[in-house]
Specification:
The complex is a heterodimer of chains A (304) and B (332). Chain A is mainly α and 304 residues long. Chain A has a domain at 103-269 and 279-298: MetI-like (MetI-like fold). Chain A is 72% helix and 0% strand. With 332 residues, chain B is α/β, with parallel strands linked by helices. Chain B folds into 2 domains: 19-237, Rossmann fold; 266-332, no CATH class. Helices cover 29% and strands 23% of the residues of chain B. Chain B contains 10 helices and 12 strands. Chain B has helices spanning 69-76, 99-106, 126-137, 142-155, 172-183, 202-218, 230-236, 254-259, 264-271, 306-310, and strands at residues 19-33, 39-54, 58-62, 84-89, 92-93, 109-112, 190-194, 222-227, 239-244, 247-253, 316-317, 323-324. In chain B, strand 7 (190-194), helix 6 and strand 8 (222-227) form a beta-alpha-beta unit. The radius of gyration of chain B is 21 Å and the shape is globular. The chains are: A mainly alpha (304), B alpha/beta (332). The A-B interface holds A 1-2, 5-7, 9-10, 13-14, 18, 21, 194-196, 198-206, 209, 214, 217-218, 298-301 and B 77, 79, 103, 106-107, 110-111, 113-115, 118-123, 132-133, 136-137, 158-159, 161-162, 164-166, 168-169, 171, 173-174, 177, 179, 182, 186, 204, 207.
Chain lengths: 304, 332
């Protein structure tokens, strides 16, 4: 065997604590990855904007001024720097509404995706690993939920629970976890066949520890990809629910709601959807880029 | 050690110490699903296999692929349940124990897997892989756990400083050393080694075999060594069982098996070792289904006569002390 390789490994072995090593590795990997940096930059900008919203917004997002109605943005004729992105159909400053609306949209997207991914991954891994009756029970529930269109399902749950921010979060999570359960179950079935799971079983590791220790860490890449794709979906779904009066209540702004309000005026005032559309695009591109980087980072086989 | 026909120390057992593991009438059938409902038939992967392993003894199981040798190993590990038969471990019914009792007993039987690539979780650090059995069965303080892992890595010839690395940073031979370190972490009484070297380069095979030999010499370990490679088995094993299509056709001391093979299939296997200077007299394996009755080897056997095709031969002691399942054992 290559004993020289061994001594090389020994010579470069890190002496710091494991946590320091992990943090340093993360920063090093981030510096080397343009897409990771770009993604982090986009997400960082949007998160800081949302956090500093009251200071950043030039006007009260609910303030209606007749003269600002359909005010064009700065680059169009008639626009001005005091209303960079123009005004909407009710005479409110669009930039202020985007900045403040970021809080609602991001909060819903992040909480829902995190909740759905956690519940779905756990149940999917259990179904895949346990098999038999447990698998059947979980997957038939998944089939049942998947039989309804995603938004209709969320609507039905909200009709039962009543309108509001948290009921919306709950409804969207219940409607979305099934996607994760299906993906993770498939992956778990594949991983369960691998020899290292059999090795753990032969040692006598209990089933729940195999699921948490071997199955879940190995499905993280797939879950990350799915989660990054679904952030934009949730932002739009929030818009649809809010549009129907079930989500956040007016005048609280959210990106999705701004787009659905602007839809009626697409020909006369396209800037009403342009601003919120661009920030949704930025968020989803940023999260996708960063998620891609993260997936490579958590895979120890990837080149550092 | 990889010379075609090895010179062997006399390892034939004179008296039999109490058996550590004893397998009786082990059967594993796999059902073939029918086109609509029910089953179309059964595949007997393992058919009525009995053997025993004494304390500090190494028993080799050889056979071609599909002969059921890995299935036997996995049934002993209780990774799959046998269709019939029973297994006694240290005098206890091994298949009946459950719960906490089984958890405690399981520590005494550990396994080395075939693939050094698939048997280590790619996301785990070496330290965690080797510590997994210790964490599962003992609650040790972190410092002691670290020392134990370092000791185990040293015992298999690895530098303890590799503990923070991941499996992909190692060669196949190094990975198999890690797998062995994990298997001996709980100081088992029985090690089931399922083709531990067949995925490795020949030069690395020799090192891993020497390591296994070394571990065996150090402790009071018994081993079930599963392989398709006779020269590897000759190096390590005290006795050898030859499997053909799920049945044990010969069980003999290594020395007597290599010098005076009794069963025609064993002879064909030995003749197939390159450079053995023997002529291979068996015909190629036929794809035709094995007849339900009679000797499974009859269709390939140059000595097959009438009883071979109708009566399943039982494993019987021959004159030399070996057990042979052949109707014509004295005549050929």
């Amino acid at each position: 065997m290559a004993d020289s390789t061994l001594s090389q490994i020994a010579a470069t072995a890190p002496t710091e604590s494991v946590h320091n090593v992990a943090r340093n590795q993360f920063l090093k990997a981030l510096r080397r990855s343009p897409k990771g940096l770009a993604g982090l930059l986009l997400i960082g900008m949007i998160l800081i904007g949302a956090a500093a919203a009251p200071a950043l917004a030039p006007y009260d997002p609910a303030q209606q001024v007749l003269g600002w109605r359909f005010l064009p943005p700065v680059w169009a004729t008639g626009g001005g720097w005091d209303h960079i992105l123009g005004g909407d159909n009710l005479g409110r400053d669009i930039f202020s509404r985007i900045v403040v609306g970021a809080r609602t949209s991001l909060a819903v997207a992040i909480i829902v995706v995190a909740l759905a991914a956690t519940i779905g991954s756990l149940l999917g891994a259990v179904a895949g690993y346990a098999g038999g009756i447990v698998d059947n029970l979980i997957m038939r529930l998944v089939d049942f939920l998947l039989a309804f269109p995603f938004l209709l399902l969320a609507l039905m749950i909200m009709a039962i629970l009543g309108p509001g921010f948290w009921t919306m979060v709950l409804a969207l999570s219940i409607a979305l976890w099934v996607n994760y359960a299906r993906v993770v179950r498939g992956e778990a079935l594949r991983i369960e066949q691998m020899e290292f799971v059999e090795a753990a079983r032969s040692i006598g590791v209990p089933g729940w520890r195999i699921v948490l220790g071997h199955v879940l860490p190995n499905v993280i890449p797939s879950v990350l990809v799915l989660a990054t794709l679904e952030v934009a979906l949730v932002i739009i779904a929030e818009a649809a629910l809010s549009f129907l009066g079930l989500g956040v209540q007016p005048p609280t702004p959210s990106w999705g709601k701004m787009i659905s309000e602007g839809r009626d005026f697409l020909y006369d005032a396209p800037w009403m959807v342009l601003g919120p559309g661009l920030v949704i695009l930025m968020t989803s591109v940023g999260i996708n880029l960063f998620g891609d980087f993260l997936r490579d980072f958590v895979d120890p086989r990837a080149e550092r | 050690m990889l010379s075609p026909v090895p010179s062997l120390p006399d390892q034939a057992r004179t008296e039999s110490p109490p058996d550590l593991l004893s397998v009786k009438g082990l059967v594993k059938h796999y059902a073939l699903p029918g086109r609509w409902f029910g089953r179309a038939g059964v595949i007997p992967a393992v058919d009525d296999v009995s053997f025993s392993i004494g304390s500090r003894e190494t028993l080799g199981l050889v056979g071609e692929s599909g002969s059921g040798k890995s299935t036997i190993g996995r049934m002993i590990m209780r990774l799959i349940r046998p269709t019939a038969g029973n297994i006694l471990f240290d005098g206890q019914d091994w298949l009946a124990s459950s719960g906490e009792e089984f958890r405690r007993a399981r520590r005494r039987v550990q396994m080395v897997f075939q693939s050094p690539y698939a048997s280590l979780d790619p996301r785990w650090r070496i330290a965690d892989i080797v510590a997994e059995p210790l964490r599962t069965h003992q609650s040790l303080p972190a410092a002691e756990l670290r020392d134990r892992v370092a000791g185990l890595l040293q015992a298999v010839g690895l530098d303890p400083s590799v503990a923070d690395r991941h499996p992909h940073q190692f060669s196949g031979g190094q990975r198999q050393r890690i797998g062995i370190a994990r298997a001996i972490a709980l100081e088992p009484d029985l090690l089931v080694a399922d083709e531990p070297v067949s995925a490795l380069d020949v030069s690395v095979q020799a090192q891993i075999l020497a390591l296994l030999q070394d571990i065996k010499a150090r402790g009071r370990l018994s081993m079930l060594f599963i392989s398709h490679d006779l020269s590897v088995v000759a190096y390590l094993c005290d006795r050898v069982g030859v499997l053909y299509r799920g049945r044990l056709v010969e069980l003999a001391g290594t020395r007597s098996l290599f010098h005076a093979p009794g069963h025609p299939y064993t002879r064909a296997l030995l003749a197939a070792i390159p450079g053995s200077g023997q002529r291979c007299e068996a015909s190629a394996p036929s794809s035709a289904a094995v007849s339900e009755t009679g000797c499974a080897y009859a269709s390939r056997c140059p000595h097959a006569r009438e009883p071979c095709r109708t009566i399943v031969p039982a494993l019987r002691p021959s004159g030399s002390g070996a057990l042979i399942a052949c109707h014509r054992v004295g005549e050929i």
